[in-house]
Design goal:
Length: 99
């Protein structure tokens, strides 16, 4: 296995990190807005931080801790489930903001 096999993984991590960094910049700029928008942005930042952190933990477990063990990919851990719930929280918060 050569080093090029992890290229897409690093690209995904970089994309998520840049997305999260952009969200933090928006978070710092939103304090001039109405309290409802501030609350929505705070909730989105919390859910997004949770999701990105759990994504990194899940991929680290899959690619580093369980390297060479393909059957470990069939196990759904609490990080995977919580990451999906955080994604639902992000989408729900976004949908409610349009009401």
């Amino acid at each position: 296995m050569d080093g090029d096999d992890l290229g897409p993984t690093y690209g995904t991590w970089l994309t998520l990190w840049l997305w999260h960094a952009t969200s933090l910049v928006v978070f710092s700029l939103v304090f001039q807005d109405h309290w409802g928008i501030k609350a929505m942005v705070v909730i989105l930042i919390i859910f997004e931080t949770l999701q990105v952190t759990l994504f990194f933990a899940s991929t680290y477990r899959s690619f580093i801790d369980d390297f060479g063990n393909p059957t470990s990919l069939t196990v759904i851990t609490w990080q995977d489930s919580t990451q999906l719930l955080a994604g639902v929280g992000i989408q729900s918060t976004y949908d409610v903001s349009w009401l």
